[in-house]
Every structure is written in structure tokens, then in C-alpha cells.
Write a structure and sequence with these properties.
seven-stranded mixed beta sheet; four-stranded mixed beta sheet; alpha+beta; globular; homodimer
Chain lengths: 564, 564
């Protein structure tokens, strides 16, 4: 039992939510609790209502049930209190972070429409999570119109707004289910909705607004004229369905309500900072509060975050937002859509029965077996190069219709060869992103990795170091999102209450690195430079319009599936 | 027990030999016997001599032990006599066919050097079989010199001599083991060596000479000057190590020797035709003795054979040889290096444990399970295109350094998708070959398939029909090579002895088709036309020098393996 002041960070991920109780003095993670979402990611049929038929979802849908978010609070916060033995009076703040853009229509009271009986059978009334990909037509049209109109904000987002972001998803609902759009009093990010539940206060945060809703501190949202050019019904979308009141990160949104205090076992009035995004909140948790050090959150996908002093325009970045990560800096974000998912695909689909048997005999996972076999190879030995686009390309091509490629296969190609080639492909993709930043004047001298993968896969870390030619350090925490929530909670509580006045102070005391350092092996780097040249040539050939075979194959697939 | 006259065909394959006893009247296959080669394909270490260390082979070696060929005769001929109850007096001929180029150095008496104690530890003294790929440097140099000298015969072989053929393999031995080359009295094809064993007569056949040793009926071998340009020591290679006496197919090489008669249970003097190649001998066994109908032998690789009245020059064909398949016609051959091998690779490496379990529950093979799942798809549905170059490209690019490619993979790509894409890729490769023939004036109106695959894989046959837009019939025999040997044995025996005077007569009576006909589905054909356009674009981009990434990756792999 800690005698120090504590905060709790709650990280709302894709499959589950996780709470961590953290010592404010030194960042020690005293207790953790995880709760999986009961309905998980909803991508085939809506959760059934007794007595009704299942409602099938269109392709590319990915929804969630907001009741699952409340359940995370109800289960995990009491659990960390219990496990740690902490006195609720010593918990000075609760910070949250969320996947984004994960958005929902709510009524006047903040109740999600899908929780109301009259709307629960309509898929568009549910939470569309980040990987909901059905708004691509709207995203394409939005980008086209923005380009035609010469909208200046477009360059802050690498020249392209993703179909994963707020306005394409809202517009999709307006097009496909206008009655839902009409019925919604407001649209809100999950990050802000959970804060509204905790505090009773709607305090929209600058991170999701900046990165997912085209908002900037200096210029606000795009003009009403722009929205009207998309669709006359959208002219007043910001004022009708959103809000122009945006709060900076670390700002105290409010205190815990009586009701929430009763549900969680915390004290009413416990400080709650505004919401934040899982990747962004991880940056200070990985010790990074200054330019030059890139944080890569490696999980199912990769998220690359780096700070800069100026608003440089970088090809294919996801966004640059002033104060979007750390106050006083421009926060740059880029990403790769498919990293851990990639390796999981390989393990699911390319690991023959004999390997499973071998893994079982050795008492290791199939991932570990593949890693072990792949680690015995020298760079270049497998003779393969892959394009890591199994789930499209986020940066720098910003194109979800790109697909995966593997070249160099022979009859002696083995599963571990493909596994290693996929690892390398994601490292090459990261190098493209780093070079894009550096070519635009944003320095990336060193990498700090966090997320699930760096913990588990040493080969991956060494390959990234060899391919990028940079030293890689690893965040000490295995749960950077939740820890980041704890950091901002300490800032929201403030020094007087036993927390900190700035995120710089909080990071200095609460965030740490592991001792391990991955350093590039010059001989490996030399081979990878050659393989990277091959990757780049294929990247540009297939990704920049010389051969749009990937898009045509996708279209043929759609036709075949549609029975055309 | 048949009262009719019979012949025996013996087919020497890659892993085993197979004898079939055939009724000369109607081609009925009365008895079959198979015997696997004791030493199989020797590609890692030479078969051990007691008390000596194993001798490791260099990369790309593929050898055989000629004693295994004799064992096939010793075991299988008595077996088919026994099973059929045929009277040896009714067996009027024994015909053989062989893989090619499968060549060996022999001494004056015809004994392979590897069977002599002083040479058996030298890998170059053994039989190099068709898929021995270590003579690529020699093949490259030979092609370069032939092009520089403007050798006319080059165009008969699609502009390139394969490293699998006779002269590159002989030259490899001269370069790597000159003492073996010197010690060899002669070099001989397995096809001719086995006939030499059966009859005591060296009667080299026009098929292997034409397709594998650059010989033609009208012009003979390349000039001594050409060989001297390769290497002065090769100036008299033909006269010193080969023979200019070449005999047409169906020609009676001689009668069975006393010794062979005793070993096999047949009568001394039983007619033996000159040797033949497995693919080529299958053509009349598949009923084809006229132009316009292409025979595709589908097994580990595909071999495409078609007859023509003129010596057309076709890009990337393996060869055109007058009387090389059927007397009176030019026989055209093309091929694909990797077909059944391809699917086997997929099953070995891309079938996860869950599929094995499912196959076991259903009591089917993993191949069958994949076929069943893949057959449920529509063309285009999997969203993939592959280049079928896992083992290089034989026709039309004639480039063993090309490798496999898969494009279009996503996180929902499943093993059956890859399996189907590989099937389609080999069908696209066949279409490239057919179009190459037709563009050069060699008609291909219909396809007759034979070999192991058409028996087993209906999906494959339908895909080939849909992709090529041609009807496909299937040879009735499951053992076209051995049956073809039986056909030519009947011709060697002649009408007087109860056989036939020509292969046309023999084919008319002894060869049949199955009732099944695969007809192109127009809707599928339309989708495949689009996919084929994608295949062709990738084929040319990666295969014709626009992006030599495959070769560079192979070179990097060699360097890595060499520890460079």
C-alpha cells in the first residue's frame, strides 16, 4: 500500500479497457485491471435484441457499444483500488485516453442514440470506431472538394483527410441514414463522451479536435462554406452537431460526479482532465516532451509521434496540431495501418501444422517460434521484399485501397521467411515516414518505442534499428496509454493537490525508459539500405499511380462479392 | 489374362519408375507397377559409402543413381507380367521414356562413372537430372556467345538455351571437375542409356538430341567453331563425347538381350524402340498426332506440346524439333517450371493447423480441403494476382532467376485465396504461352490435358478453361508416359508382329480421351480477361527488365548465404 498520492489512468483500447493506478511521485504502476468489451468490435451483426433477428452490417463497418465503456469504469477502477489497497482519498485524479476517431451520435442528455430502444436497430446509431472504413466515398469526395477549393488546412493533414476521421463518418451517416443524423443532438468523440460521463461536463479536447476534426487553435474549423460545398445540409455542422469550445490537454474538465464516485469507489470531485488519444497520451509516458525524439507506439498498427517548434508540412503525415500532444509544441503524427495485425495474419494463415506442433513441444507461442527461426537469418537471406499494405497505407501515401505485396518467393521460402519479410516491410515503412519528416525539416534523431510489440519481439526492435539507422529505446511502461492518462490526471489535479503543474514536470517524475538500447548494426544497415531501395521502388510503382493494380483488384473483388 | 498382343511401357520419372502392360488392340492398361528410386533425387549429400563421411553437394544440385533405373526394370516388368498373367511370348515390345535432360558420363562399356569405385565420391560423376540447376553460369555464357555469333539455331529454342540442358551441364563438369569430363568416354541421356542396357545398342533418339542437345535433322549440331568459342577444349565435344548418329522416334533400337530377358522375364529379342522423353511420348498417348490440339502435361511442372507443319519461331518456347514428337511434323515444346510444386508449396507452408484438423475431420487431404474452399469463390473474389515464378519462368521468358510474386493481400486473405491465386497464375502463364504460339502462327484450338493434376483437381481444369477460353479434354490414361512407351513399342514391333507400322495407327487404336469436357464459362472468362491484363502487366514489368528486383533479391540472398 502506497503512502504517496496516486492517479488512475484509464485506457480505452480497441478490444478492452485498462486501468492503472500510478504513484505520482515516481510513476510506479501499483495495480492494473483489464476488462474486455462485452460486445468487442462489432463488424458482422449488431448485438442481438431478444426476439429480433440479427441485423447484418455492411462491409467495412466497425462499431462498438458505449455501454461497454461504462462497464470498464465500473469494473476496473474498483479493481485497482482493491488490488493496490490505495485510499481513495490519495487518488488525486483520473485521466483517460481513447482510440480515435471513435465517434457517436448522442441526444441532449449525452445518451448515445444506440442506447435508446428506438434507434438500437440502426447501425448508424452506434459508435463508429477508428477502423470503421465505410466512409471512404465521403472521404474521397471531401478531399476532392478541399483540393478544388484550395483549402489551406489540407496540407496540415498530409494532403488528405482519412476516411477514419470525424467528418467523413458524419457525412456517411447523413447520406446513408439521414434520420439518425437528424435525431442526433450532437456528435462526440468517445474520448470526450467518457469525460462527460465522469464529470457531467462536456469539455472537448484539443487532441481529437485537432487530429480528427480538422480544428486548429489558430484557425478553428474549416469554414461553413466549405461544409456547404460538401453538402448544403452540412453548412452549420459545427454549430449544430459539434462545438467550437475546445480545451487544451491537461486542462481539468471537472470533478468526478456523485454518481460516478459511487460507481467507482473514488471520491466525488476527484480531478478529471479533458480526454486524450491513446497514441498521443503515450508520448510523455515514453519520456518525450521535446523535439527530435520520435515515439512509435507499436501495436496492431504503428503510430509515429514527434514534436517540433514550427508547423512544417510533411507529406502524408496524419496531422500536425499545435499543442496537440505537448503544450508549446507542434505535435506531428504519422502512422502505419498494419503492424501487429500483419504478424498476426501471418501466424494465423501461414503457419503450418508442423510448426504448431513444434511450438507446442517447445512450450512457446507460434509468434515466438517464428521469431526464433527468423532471428537466425541474416538480412537479405530470405530473398523477399514485402509492401506492408495488408491494411492499406496510412503514411505517407494515405490510401486505404492499397494492398499487400510479396516478391521473391521460391519453393524454398518458409513461413519464417515471410514473417521476417513482413517485419522488415513495416520497418521500411517507418523509414519512409522518418525520411519524409526529415526531408521537411522535422528532426528524428532517436526513437522511443512503446506499446505491446517492443515488449515481446526483440527481433522486431533490432530490425527497426538496423533499417532506420537509429538507436531505439523502449518505454519502461507496458501500458503507456494508461500511464499517460495518469500523468495528465496529475496535471489536472495540480501541484497543490500533490500533482504537478505541467506535463513536463509530470513526465520528468513519472515516465521512465528501460535500460535496453537497440543500436544499428552497420553491416546489417548496409544490406537493408539495398533492400530499402527495392522497397522504395515498389512503393512508388504501386503506390503512386504507375500501376494501380491493387485498386483494380479491390474493385474486381467488390464486384465479385456483390454478385455483379 | 489377355489373349491379345501386348506391349510394356516403362516411364522413368523424377522419383520413381513405372511399368504398364498394355493391350495393343485397344490400349487397355492391364497391369501397372511402380518402384521408387532407392536414392531418390540426390540434392544434399551423395549416398554414403560405408566407412566414409557423407559428401555434401553444392547448391542447386540434383542427381540420381543409375542403379535405381536398373532396379525399376528388375522389379516392375516381372510385376506387370505376374499381375496381368500375360504370356511373355505375347509381349511384342518394351518401350521407355525418361525425364530429360538427364545425363551422365559413361565409360567405353556404357558403365556410368559413378558406379565405378574410383569416381563414386565425385558428384560430377553422377547422373545430373533435369532439375539440376548448377550450370546456370555456363548457360548464360553459352547464350551470350551464341547471340554474339548470331547462331541461327538459337531461335529454334526461343532465343535461350536452358541451364537444364546437355551442353551447359557438360561444360559445368568440364569447368568444375575436368578430371571427370576427361575420364568420360561419352556422355549420354538416361533415355538412351536405358535402351543401351536393354538392347546392348547405343541408338540415340531424335527427341532428346533435338530438344536438349541443339541437334536438328537438317543441320545437325552447332558447329565445332561454336563449341571452340565456348571453350577450346569443347571444339570436338560432339565427336569426342557424343555421337552424330541419331535415330527417329519409333525406330527399333534392337531386341532385348539375353541378360535383360533373364532379368525381366521377357523373351530375348523383344522389340525395343529408341528412347523418348516423358512429356513428348505423352502426346500420342493423349490422342494427339496432328496440329491444332495442344497437350499439356500437368504435374510438378507444366509441359506444353503442339504440332505444326512449319518451323515457326515462337518467343520463349523450349524448342521446335522436326520429327521431335510425331514424324512428319514439327514438334513445339514450351513449359512452366512450377505448377504442382506450387500447390504443394502452398499446402506445406500456407495451411494453418486449423485447416489440417478440418481436413482430418472430413477425411480429405489438405489439397482437397483447399480446393473445396477455393472452388466456392467467384473469379476475382479473392482480390489477388500472383506471378507463378516460384521456380523461375521457363516460357516465354526463359529465366530461372525470376521469383514468385503475390499482390493484393489483405488482412482477410485466407490460405484458400492464395491457393486459388496460384492456380490462376499458372493458368495465366499457360495463356501467355498459347498466345505466344498463336501470335507466331502455330494454332492452338483445343487443349488435351494429361498428367497427375487433371485427375485430381477439377477446379484447376475449369480455371484453365475459363482463363484460356478453350475447351479442355483429358487423356483417359493416368499414366500417359508409360502408355506412350507402349505405343512406340508397338511401332518398333511392327504390324507383322501384331503391332503397328506407324504411330498414327498406334494412337488411333491405343489412345483415348475421357468423356469429361471442360468448357469456358463466358462470365468467368470476362473477369479473367481483366485479371489476365493485370498478370501481363506485372509479367512484363518484372520479367522484361523494367524492374529486376527479383534478380537483385536473389543476388542478396546468395551473398547472405555465402556469409559475404
Amino acid at each position: 500500500m502506497s503512502k504517496h498520492k496516486c492517479t488512475i489512468g484509464v485506457d480505452f483500447g480497441t478490444e478492452s479497457g485498462r486501468a492503472v493506478l500510478v504513484d505520482v511521485t515516481d510513476g510506479q504502476e501499483i495495480a492494473t485491471a483489464v476488462h474486455p468489451y462485452g460486445d468487442g468490435v462489432i463488424d458482422e451483426t449488431l448485438p442481438g435484441t431478444p426476439g429480433t433477428a440479427n441485423i447484418s452490417l455492411p462491409p467495412d463497418f466497425a462499431l462498438q457499444n458505449p455501454a461497454d465503456y461504462m462497464e470498464v469504469l465500473r469494473v476496473t477502477i474498483p479493481a485497482v483500488l482493491r488490488k493496490s489497497g490505495a485510499d481513495p482519498g490519495d487518488v488525486i485524479g483520473v485521466g483517460t485516453d481513447f482510440t480515435a476517431c471513435t465517434m457517436m451520435p448522442i441526444d441532449k442528455k449525452g445518451t448515445p442514440l444506440c442506447m435508446k430502444p428506438e434507434w438500437r436497430n440502426n447501425p448508424y446509431a452506434w459508435v463508429k470506431i477508428w477502423k470503421h472504413h465505410a466512409a471512404q466515398p465521403e472521404a474521397n469526395r471531401l478531399n476532392e472538394i478541399a483540393r478544388e477549393r484550395g483549402e489551406k488546412w489540407l496540407s496540415r493533414y498530409g494532403g488528405k483527410i482519412s476516411s477514419e476521421w470525424l467528418f467523413p463518418k458524419m457525412w456517411e451517416t447523413l447520406n446513408k441514414a439521414p434520420q439518425v443524423y437528424e435525431a442526433a443532438d450532437r456528435y462526440i468523440e468517445g474520448a470526450d463522451w467518457i469525460v462527460l460521463q465522469l464529470t457531467g461536463q462536456e469539455r472537448r479536447n484539443s487532441c481529437t479536435a485537432g487530429y480528427k476534426a480538422i480544428w486548429s487553435k489558430r484557425e478553428g474549423y474549416p469554414s461553413d462554406d466549405f461544409f456547404a460545398a460538401l453538402d448544403p445540409r452540412l453548412r452549420h455542422v459545427v454549430d449544430e452537431k459539434l462545438s467550437r469550445e475546445i480545451y487544451p490537454l491537461g486542462h481539468r474538465a471537472g470533478g468526478l460526479t456523485q454518481e460516478m464516485a459511487a460507481m467507482t469507489g473514488l471520491r466525488p470531485g476527484t480531478a478529471v482532465p479533458v480526454g486524450n488519444v491513446d497514441a498521443h497520451v503515450s508520448v510523455p509516458a515514453a519520456t518525450v516532451v521535446e523535439p527530435g525524439r520520435m515515439v512509435i507506439i507499436m501495436g496492431t498498427s504503428n503510430c509515429h509521434m514527434v514534436l517540433g517548434a514550427r508547423e512544417n508540412i510533411v507529406e502524408g503525415m496524419c496531422g500536425v496540431v499545435e499543442d496537440g500532444i505537448i503544450p508549446g509544441y507542434f505535435g506531428f503524427e504519422a502512422g502505419q495501418s498494419c503492424v501487429g495485425d500483419h504478424f498476426a495474419w501471418c501466424v494465423e494463415n501461414c503457419v503450418p501444422a508442423g510448426y504448431r506442433d513444434e511450438a507446442e513441444r517447445q512450450g512457446v507461442s507460434r509468434h515466438q517460434l517464428l521469431e526464433e527461426k527468423a532471428a537466425q537469418q541474416k538480412p537479405g537471406e530470405h530473398g523477399l521484399v514485402a509492401l506492408d499494405w495488408w491494411n492499406g497505407n496510412r503514411s505517407v501515401l494515405v490510401d486505404v485501397d492499397l494492398t499487400g505485396l510479396l516478391v521473391g518467393a521460391t519453393l524454398v521460402t518458409r513461413p519464417e521467411d515471410i514473417y521476417r519479410a513482413l517485419i522488415e516491410a513495416t520497418a521500411f515503412g517507418t523509414r519512409v515516414i522518418i525520411e519524409s519528416f526529415e526531408n521537411s525539416g522535422v528532426a528524428v534523431n532517436e526513437i522511443v518505442a512503446c506499446g505491446g510489440l517492443p515488449e515481446r519481439n526483440k527481433l522486431l526492435m533490432q530490425v527497426y534499428s538496423d533499417v532506420t539507422g537509429r538507436e531505439i529505446r523502449v518505454a519502461a511502461t507496458a501500458q503507456a496509454g494508461a500511464l499517460g492518462g495518469g500523468l495528465f490526471a496529475a496535471v489536472a489535479a495540480g501541484k497543490e493537490a500533490g500533482g504537478y503543474d505541467t506535463i513536463f514536470e509530470a513526465a520528468k517524475h513519472m515516465a521512465r525508459l528501460k535500460d535496453v538500447v537497440y543500436r544499428p548494426n552497420p553491416a546489417h544497415k548496409a544490406v537493408y539500405d539495398q533492400l530499402y531501395a527495392e522497397y522504395l521502388k515498389l512503393h512508388d510503382y504501386f503506390g503512386r499511380g504507375q500501376n494501380n493494380v491493387m485498386k483494380r483488384l479491390k474493385a474486381l473483388r467488390q464486384q465479385a462479392l456483390a454478385g455483379a
